[in-house]
Amino acid sequence: GNSVTQMxxxxxxxxxxxxxxxxxxxxxxxxxxxxxxxxxxEGLQLLLKATKADDKGSNKxxxxxxxxxxxSFHLEKGSVQVSDSAVYFCALAVYNQxxxxxxxxxxxxxxxx
Amino acid sequence: xxxxxxxxxxxxxxxxxxxxxKCEQNLGHDTMYWYKQDSKKFLKIMFSYNNxxxxxxxxxxNRFSPKSPDKAHLNLHINSLELGDSAVYFCASSQELLxxxxxxxxxxxxxxxxx
Lengths: 113, 115
Description:
The complex is a heterodimer of chains A (113) and B (115).
Chain A: E1 3-6, E2 11-14, E3 19-21, E4 23-26, E5 31-38, E6 44-50, E7 56-59, E8 62-65, E9 75-77, E10 86-94, E11 102-103, E12 107-112
Parallel strand pairs in A: 2-12
Antiparallel strand pairs in A: 1-4, 3-9, 5-6, 5-10, 7-8, 8-9, 10-11, 10-12
Chain B: E1 4-7, E2 10-13, E3 19-25, E4 31-37, E5 43-50, E6 53-57, E7 64-70, E8 73-78, E9 87-94, E10 105-106, E11 110-114
């Protein structure tokens, strides 16, 4: 079946630190991969996506590369800010499965000044 | 204008009651979804509708009945509420059913608490 595994949280960093949140997936078929972010008390927003191997998604200083050989889509940011504190979800969607997103368990990030 | 809206934002009710959550999107999308987020933040799809037709039902108990009066609305009715139904319910929409790469837009969520 299809599944997504993320690194356990919470992750606590100081402002301007480097961020990596690991994400690996298992999929039957060729998935599209996503990172969604959930700020406190809000719904999810798409942060970035990649639709094929070696694609790099990027947005707001975050980036992730679709690695088919390692079935991974790790999220990185060179210098985090307090405003990046949120829960980050890795997700996949497989073509012809109704568009449903399969999420990882979420990783809570807390950035301290 | 809010793209995907849900009402109510909070819902507190007693076990055994019946309640509904409403969702509306003004993005012109064809497909709408309901997701459940548990207390550990884990998100799981419940249903999806495309042009008012049920596409996905992820082994959700029969007490949950989605209804789509038109493609801009997807409501969720829950009968005989149980303690385990306490969660945050998110509505979402996207443009194309089969195109897995399309972004889903999420509503702000409805926090349901069953006492």
